[in-house]
Amino acid sequence: MPGSIFLEGDSIELRTIEESDLEFLQDGINDPRIRVPLGRAKPINRAQEREFFEEEVCGDDAIHLLIAADGEPVGAIGLDPIERYRQWGEIGYWIAPDFHGHGYGSDALSTTIEYAFTQLGLHKLAARVYEFNEPSMELLESVGFRREGVHRKDAFVDGEYKDTYWYGLLEDEWRENDP
């Protein structure tokens, strides 16, 4: 069972990540349908997933949450890093392929954006997406992110160098467009 509800969206809950979630997270991050769009080339074993949990999830420098729908884990979202002196954070997320198309990513992203601006006092959020990940680009743009630039042939992903697109969302832009 996922951890405590930290934030609630319309169709999802953002819950604390607990040790009991590590198997779901490890299975997800090793799934090629998630791993490739995230640009991960190496497998993650249980010990490595536990190390990530202990060092990153349980640390104070970032926020990592489990996305759940009806109490069932469906993905993960985080703000990592959070740079307090710049009032800036980078957002990252993934939804397990079996749960694509239900609006969980949009809801989790919108909920996290609101939290970042209204509770953490951040001024800007950034996200990066590889050139072939059009669904993620569309998702970011649907919640107000703007493409700010490209790092050409920046990452070696799935056997080829790929461009990385950088997206940004300023707090005042979000406030202007938030209903």
Brief overview:
The chain is α+β, with helices and mostly antiparallel strands and 179 residues long. It has a domain at 5-126: 3-Layer(aba) Sandwich (Aminopeptidase), CATH 3.40.630.30. The protein has helices at residues 22-30, 32-38, 46-57, 104-118, 134-142, 171-177; strands spanning 5-8, 13-16, 63-69, 72-83, 88-95, 124-130, 146-157, 160-170.
What does this structure look like?
- The chain has a domain at 5-126: Gcn5-related N-acetyltransferase (GNAT) (Aminopeptidase).
- An eight-stranded mixed beta sheet has the order 1-2-3-4-5-6-8-7, with helices on both faces.
- The model has no long low-confidence stretch (mean pLDDT 95).
- Helix 1 (22-30) crosses helix 3.
- Helices cover 33% and strands 36% of the residues.
- The chain is α+β, with helices and mostly antiparallel strands and 179 residues long.
- The protein has helices at 22-30, 32-38, 46-57, 104-118, 134-142, 171-177, and strands at 5-8, 13-16, 63-69, 72-83, 88-95, 124-130, 146-157, 160-170.
